[in-house]
Design brief:
alpha+beta; 7-stranded antiparallel β-sheet; 4-stranded antiparallel β-sheet; 3 helices
């Protein structure tokens, strides 16, 4: 009968050391490049190492745990970086699409400036905190002198808008809105500056809007509302 001899302890030790060295080298390479060994490959090497380790010189469990943690960390970081890159690309495309959709439209941002067009008219908008029985607009020149007034009468709560036609072409004015309720109390007013969007500026990290009557671009995030 043919006898089968078990591997000697010296042979097992050599095999264990060889597998351990291979595992350590592969793990080190993985930590450096982040792509040379997968968790599945590592588990196969770990199984072989445990199978052939010497009873008198077993593998260090702390070292094995450290190696496996290194692989998991590298793969986790690579996965996270890929996901962040995908989100950034998707967000940038969405911002670009949103900005492009505003070209040719009138948008309102927080402010109290009226910018007249070639005909000397300007559009303003504001929000009333409550219904107003009486609403009046005062328009001022840049030096603070009176340029004109408007009576808008009773208006509902929420967003309202007006067009002033008494200005010089291509000029800027300041305006103030005063509103009173049916009980003669003051109604809170939030004024808006209205711009016409001419194009999209892509020179920065996020798209901004080129608007008529302003040398500065307007961030999309600053828009309070889009007017009809």
């Amino acid at each position: 009968m043919t006898s089968i001899l078990a591997p000697s302890s010296a042979t097992a030790a050599v095999n264990s050391q060889s597998v351990a060295a291979s595992t350590t080298a592969s793990t080190t390479s993985s930590s450096g490049s982040g792509a040379s060994i997968s968790q599945t490959d590592f588990l196969k090497l770990l199984t072989a190492q445990l199978q052939y380790q010497s009873p008198t010189n077993p593998a260090d469990p702390t070292q094995l745990a450290s190696e496996f943690a290194a692989i998991s960390t590298v793969q986790g970081i690579n996965s996270l970086n890929s996901k962040v890159a995908g989100i950034t690309t998707s967000t940038g495309a969405a911002q670009m699409a949103q900005a492009a959709s505003l070209v040719g439209k009138k948008v309102a941002v927080t402010g109290d400036v009226l910018t007249t067009n070639a005909n000397g008219s300007a559009q303003g908008a504001f929000v009333l905190a409550a219904p107003a029985a009486s609403t009046n607009v005062t328009v001022l020149n840049q030096n603070g002198t009176l340029a004109g007034t408007m009576s808008l009468g009773p208006l509902p709560a929420g967003q309202n808008q007006f067009t002033w036609t008494g200005g010089a072409a291509g000029s800027k004015y300041l305006y103030d809105v005063s509103a009173t309720s049916s009980s003669s109390g003051a109604v809170s007013v939030t004024p808006y500056t209205v711009y016409t969007v001419n194009g999209v500026n892509l020179s920065g990290s996020t798209p901004t809007l080129n608007v008529a009557g302003s040398a500065s671009t307007v961030p999309v995030s600053s828009i309070q509302t889009v007017l009809d």
